[in-house]
C-alpha cells in the first residue's frame, strides 16, 4: 500500500480553514518579528527516524494484544514508514534493530526505501536477547560480562551490525546494554564498568571513519538493582573514553522520576557530546508511550535547550532524531503519527521563544519575565505552521484524519491479513 500525493490531496479537501488560521497566526508572529517562512522551513527540514521495532503491536510480560495488518517483514515495515512520511513529510528515515530486521534482500530493501523517500538512520545492536545458534548466552551480560568469550561474541555482533548498516547507507551505531544486576553483591560494579569501557573501545576502534557511536543509558529494566550504563554521566564518560565520534543518546523514558532532562541535554550539548534522542513519553518507568501524551511541557523545555544548543554549540554534532515507542493499545501507525505531531509542535513552539529577550530577563534576574517569555511561546497554537510545513511537501492537513478517511489500516489488513506479526518489542 502506498499513498500518492493525489490520495492525500483528496483527503485534505478544502484548505480554506487552514489558510485563514495560517494567515491570522503568521500576521501575529510577523508583528512580533518572527521570520515565519524560515520557521516553517525549519519544521519541514526536521526529519525523525521511525523505529523499525515499533510498527506492530507492543506488549508487556502481562500480555500482547495483536494488531491486524502488521508488517510481516522488513520490506513491509519500510512501506509503513513510507505511509507515515507521505502523510507527515517528517518521517523520512528508519532506524533498524538487528537481528529483528536483518535484511534478506538488500537491493529490494533499498529500492523500497528509495521509492518512499526513506533513508537509514542509526542501526541498533541487540545483546540483550539470546539468538538461536549463538554459542554464549547474554543472561549475565554482554559487553560487561566477566567472561571474555562472551564479551568477544558481543563485540563481534556489534561489528556485524555495522557491516549490515554500511550496506544500507547508515552512518551510526546505537548501543543500549541491558547489562546489570538484580541483586546486591551479584557483580563488581567497577569490573563491569571497566569491561564495558574496554568492549566499547574495541567496537569504536572497528567503526568506519565516517561512522558515529551512540551510547544509550538506562537506570533499570530488565535488571532491577543496577545497570552498567545507568545514566547520562556514565554514557558521557564512556563516549569520552572511546573518542570524538562517540556520543550520548538520550531516551526520554530512561530517567528516574522528576529528572531534569532539559538540564541533561544542555550539559551534554555544552560538551559537544549529545548525539541523539529516542523520543517517547512516560508517567512512571520506561513506558514508551506516545510523545507528548503525558508531559508535553517537559518536551517543550527540552526543545528550548535543543534550539539554544543548535544555535550556540557548534562543537555538538547534528543530532539523530528518533522515536522509541511501544504500542500496547493504539494502532501503531496512529500512535506514531501523534508522536510526530507532538515532536514538531514542541520544536515549533521552542523556535518561537525570543532567546535574546530571555537572556536579557535572565541577566536582570527577572524570574517572572523569564517564565512569561517561555510560556508565551508554549501557549501559542502552532498547528497552522505544522500544517503549512506538511502541505508544502504534499503531506496531510491532518494526518490522523487522512489515515482514517483513506482507510489505510483496512487496506493493510486487506493486503496482509489479520495474523501477520511484526518483529520487535
Ligand atoms: C531499551 C530501548 C533501546 C532499544 C530498545 C528497543 O529500553 O530503549 O533503545 O534497543 O528499547
Ligand atoms: Mn531507546
TrEMBL record:
Keyword Metal-binding part of the UniProt annotation: yes
Protein name, UniProt field: L-rhamnose isomerase/sugar isomerase
InterPro entries: L-rhamnose_isomerase, Xyl_isomerase-like_sf
Domain of life: Bacteria
GO terms for MF: L-rhamnose isomerase activity
Documented EC number(s): 5.3.1.-, 5.3.1.14
Top-level class of the enzyme under EC nomenclature: isomerase
Hydrolase listed as a keyword: no
Keywords assigned by UniProt, alphabetized: Isomerase, Manganese, Metal-binding
Matches recorded under SUPFAM superfamilies: Xylose isomerase-like (SSF51658)
Amino acid at each position: 500500500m502506498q499513498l500518492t500525493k493525489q490520495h492525500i490531496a483528496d483527503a485534505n479537501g478544502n484548505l480554506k480553514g487552514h489558510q485563514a488560521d495560517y494567515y491570522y497566526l503568521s500576521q501575529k508572529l510577523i508583528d512580533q518579528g518572527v521570520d515565519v517562512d524560515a520557521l516553517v522551513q525549519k519544521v519541514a527540514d526536521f526529519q525523525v527516524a521511525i523505529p523499525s521495532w515499533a510498527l506492530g503491536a507492543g506488549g508487556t510480560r502481562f500480555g500482547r494484544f495483536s494488531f491486524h495488518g502488521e508488517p510481516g517483514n522488513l520490506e513491509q515495515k519500510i512501506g509503513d514508514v513510507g505511509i507515515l512520511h507521505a502523510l507527515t513529510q517528517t518521517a523520512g528515515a528508519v532506524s533498524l534493530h538487528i537481528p529483528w530486521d536483518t535484511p534478506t534482500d538488500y537491493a529490494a530493501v533499498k529500492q523500497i526505501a528509495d521509492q518512499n523517500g526513506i533513508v537509514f538512520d542509526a542501526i541498533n545492536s541487540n545483546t540483550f536477547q539470546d539468538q538461536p545458534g549463538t554459542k554464549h548466552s547474554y543472561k549475565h551480560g554482554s559487553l560487561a560480562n566477566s567472561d571474555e568469550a562472551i564479551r568477544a561474541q558481543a563485540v563481534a555482533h556489534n561489528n556485524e551490525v555495522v557491516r549490515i548498516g554500511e550496506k544500507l547507507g547508515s552512518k551510526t551505531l546505537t548501543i543500549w546494554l541491558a547489562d546489570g544486576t538484580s541483586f546486591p553483591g551479584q557483580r563488581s560494579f567497577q569490573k563491569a564498568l571497566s569491561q564495558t569501557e574496554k568492549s566499547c573501545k574495541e567496537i569504536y576502534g572497528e567503526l568506519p571513519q565516517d561512522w558515529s557511536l551512540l551510547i544509550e543509558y538506562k537506570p533499570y529494566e530488565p535488571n532491577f538493582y543496577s545497570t552498567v550504563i545507568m545514566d547520562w554521566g556514565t554514557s558521557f564518560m564512556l563516549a569520552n573514553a572511546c573518542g570524538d565520534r562517540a556520543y550520548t543518546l538520550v531516551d526520554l523514558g530512561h530517567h528516574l522520576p522528576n529528572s531534569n532532562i532539559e538540564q541533561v541535554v544542555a550539559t551534554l550539548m555544552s560538551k559537544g557530546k549529545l548525539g541523539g534522542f529516542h523520543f517517547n513519553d512516560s508517567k512512571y518507568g520506561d513506558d514508551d508511550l506516545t510523545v507528548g501524551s503525558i508531559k508535553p511541557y517537559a518536551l517543550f523545555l527540552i526543545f528550548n535547550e535543543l534550539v539554544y544548543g543548535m544555535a550556540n554549540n557548534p562543537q555538538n554534532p547534528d543530532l539523530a532524531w528518533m522515536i522509541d515507542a511501544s504500542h500496547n493499545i493504539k494502532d501503531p501507525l496512529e500512535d506514531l503519527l501523534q508522536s510526530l505531531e507532538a515532536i514538531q509542535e514542541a520544536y515549533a513552539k521552542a523556535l518561537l521563544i525570543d532567546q535574546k529577550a530571555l537572556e536579557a530577563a535572565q541577566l536582570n534576574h527577572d524570574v517572572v519575565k523569564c517564565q512569561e517569555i517561555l510560556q508565551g511561546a508554549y501557549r501559542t497554537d502552532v498547528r497552522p505552521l505544522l500544517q503549512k510545513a506538511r502541505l508544502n511537501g504534499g503531506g496531510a492537513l491532518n494526518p490522523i484524519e487522512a489515515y482514517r478517511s483513506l482507510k489505510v489500516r483496512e487496506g493493510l489488513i486487506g493486503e496482509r491479513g489479520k495474523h501477520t506479526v511484526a518483529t520487535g518489542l
